[in-house]
Amino acid sequence: MYDFDKVTDRRNTGSVKWDVKEGELPMWVADMDFCCSPEIVKAVSDRTSHGIYGYTDINDDWRNAYVNWWKRRHSFIMEKERLLFCSGIVPAVASAIRALTEQGDGVLLMTPVYNIFFNLIRQNSRTVVENRLKYDAFSNSFSVDFEDLENKLSQFSTRLMILCNPQNPVSRIWQREELVRIGELAFKYGVPVISDEIHCDITAPGRLYVPFASLNETNLDNSVICISPTKAFNIAGIQSSCVYSHNKRLYELIGNSLNVDNINEPNVFAVPAAVAAFDRSETWLDEMREYVFENRNIAFKYMKDNIPLLKPVEGDATYLMWVNIEAYKIGSKRFTAFLREITGLFITAGEIYGEGCGNFVRINLACPVTLLLDGLNRLKRGCDRIAADYC
42-280, what's its fold? Predict the structure, then answer.
């Protein structure tokens, strides 16, 4: 029904992703090269045609869109009175760090994880506490190191945990039992959990994620969840997100902090775009998921058949692929720089996602298949050169 094969020229549009040299192909930052749903385009266009763009407020259409989506799609019932608008999940997490911790406190991350979290912690004079996921080289997969997690949570200085659910960049949907155990340990040591669930609707067809707060009273009462249509429906530039906490104290602390930081007021498109996404774009989302995960299958097969030294990690969430490049023996910074220099392919080096990630790269697969195949061919050319020069 929807045309995900269409290639749209994004150059000279102020796009962060496509602000690259002529001839380069960016497959790095996490936004999609698909036009968003016609329903969202119409909602934004209708609002544009009104001609007056004054101060905008949150209404029940916005609240109900979130509540109904999470109830219908994820079997999680939220109280609409506890929904807080925020201009983005990144500013929401930064505000929450300031609200729930003091300078010098430790904030725990399960790594590899979204690199901006490190910046938010350090820029606010807090300390990064890394709980490194266990990597099994034989199965090329990641799992939670619960022994280390408990050790890090038990430290007096650890005052907050940021969970990425599903996990970016390793593309894991955390299982119910894993989330329950994480929640139990966090509660045991008095550490609230901020759960970033922005990638939650980008899962393999037939697979759904589990909201951290939905599992039991412990998780519900000791967490703040950050949710948004921006990643799944490709509307990041509209800046429309939501923070939810059932816990009255956490809700009030976060609400006050968002207000102090002046990030709790929507722009003129934030409400209609979110409502159009959740209320009228479900079919678009499901078709996009089918397309993206077929892209993932294409990339896996291409690497297996043509670049066997690469070891892509299997993933059931996000449109991002985490790839082991250890066989090339030069580390991801040199690997990605070399690729970009000789082929124009721009992907992300693994070092920024935590300690021990120097032998991985992240590749964005959310693009028309013609661009994907172009990227894979560039990747092969670059890997052939690297193998000839270094292996």
Answer: Aspartate Aminotransferase; domain 2 (3.40.640)
